[in-house]
Amino acid sequence: MIRYEVALPLLVLALLGVGLIAVSSAATPGDFQKQILGIGLSLVPIAALWFLGRERLYRFSFLIYIAALLLLVATMVIGREVNGSRNWLVIGPLQFQPLEIAKVALIITLARVMKGGYQGLRSYFLPLALFLPVLGLVIKEDFGGGMVLSGIFAGMMLVYRIPLWHFIAVILAVAIAFPTVVYPRLQPYQQQRLTIFINPLQDARGSGYQQVQGMIAIGSGGLMGKGYKQGSQTQNGFVPFPHTDFIFAAWAEEQGFIGAIFLLVLFGALFWRLAVMGGESPHLQDQLLFAGVLGQLGVQALENMGAAMSLLPLTGITLPLVSYGLSSLISVMATLGMAYVIHRDRYNSI
C-alpha cells in the first residue's frame, strides 16, 4: 500500500500562499493573475511526472537533457535579450527561459549516471561531460543561473561519496582562480556588480541603489511590519523589482521581522523535509536526485534573500515559489513534483 507524502505538499502550498500575498501587493493586477495562471500551468508537468513514474522518468532522462541542451543552444542564436542578458526564448506566444528546463534535466540525468557512486577518478568523466556544456551555455549570459547549476552539481557530488579532500581542493581552486583569473577578465560593470554588495553606500545612487533600497525597506518594516500594501518603499517605487528580485524586501517591509522569520521557517521546513525524504530513499540515485533538488532550491533561496539584505551579490535570482515569474515557478513546481514521485516510487528498482 502506497503511503503518500503529506508534509511536502502542505509546505509548498504555504509558500505559494505567501507568494500570492506578496505578489498581489508588490505587482500589478495583471502580474498577479499571471502568477495564478502559472500555478495552474505547473499542474501540467506535475501530472505528467505523476503518470510517468520513477522508472520511466529515469529512462527518458537523456532525452530530456538533450532537449534542454538544444534549447540552450537555440537561445544563444535566436534568444531574446531581457535586462541585458540573452536568456529568453520566444516560440509563438510562449516566452520562457530554457535554463529552467535545464535545471530539471541536469538533476535527473546526473542522478542516473552517478547511481553507481564514486569509484575512482574516472567516475568524474561522465558527470562533468554532462554538467560543463550546460554551465558553459548559461554562465556567460546568466551568472546567477550558473551559480544555481553549480549548487546542483556540488550538492550531488557530496552525496556521490567522493573523497572529502577532493571537494575541499575544488573549493580552494575556485577561491584562488576567481579573483586572480576570472574577475580581472570581467567587464568593469560586471566587477562592480559582484563587489558593490560589500558596501553599497559607496554608490547609493548608482550601482548600489537597488541593495540600499532593499535594506531600507527591510529595516523600515520593524517588528510587525507596515501592513499589506502599506510599505512606503515598496508601494512608492523605491524598491526595484519588488515582485521578483526583491520580493523578500517587499514582504519584510509589510510583514516585519515576524513575517520574515515565518518565511525563513517555511523554507527551513521545506529543506528539512526534502532531506528526510532523500534519506528515506534506499537507492543512491534517488538520494543524488534529492541532493540536486536541495542544491537548486537552497542556492536560489539563499542568494535571493541574501542579495536583498546586501549579504550577497545581486544576480537576479528569484525566490522559489514566492517571486513572480512563470518560467521559474513552473520549473520549481516540476522539480518538487519530480522529488515527490521519486519518493513515492522509492522502493521500485530499474
From TrEMBL:
GO terms for cellular component: cell division site; plasma membrane. One of its GO terms (molecular function) is lipid-linked peptidoglycan transporter activity. InterPro entries: FtsW/RodA. Keywords: Cell shape, Membrane, Transmembrane, Transmembrane helix. The keyword Translocase does not apply. The keyword Aminoacyl-tRNA synthetase does not apply. It is a multi-pass membrane protein. GO terms for biological process: cell division; regulation of cell shape. The chain crosses the membrane at residues 36-53, 60-78, 90-111, 123-139, 167-186, 256-276, 321-342. It is found in: Membrane. Signal peptide: none annotated. This is Rod shape-determining protein RodA.
